Amino acid sequence: MESQRCKGMRDLLPDDMRRFRYIEDTFRNCCVKWGYREVRTPSLEYLHLFTAT
Predict the structure, then answer these.
(1) Residue 7's Cα: distance from chain center in Å?
(2) Can you give the pTM of this predicted structure?
């Protein structure tokens, strides 16, 4: 059984990840120098947060 990615999503393969981590680390280090601190939010949310109006 083959799984399908959600629309708009893609896999980051090893070469992609190396570049992605470099950019992410550079950005994070810049933010730390300016006194910002990291916040991590949940990756999953209840559907009603996006559909209720």
Answers:
(1) 15
(2) 0.59
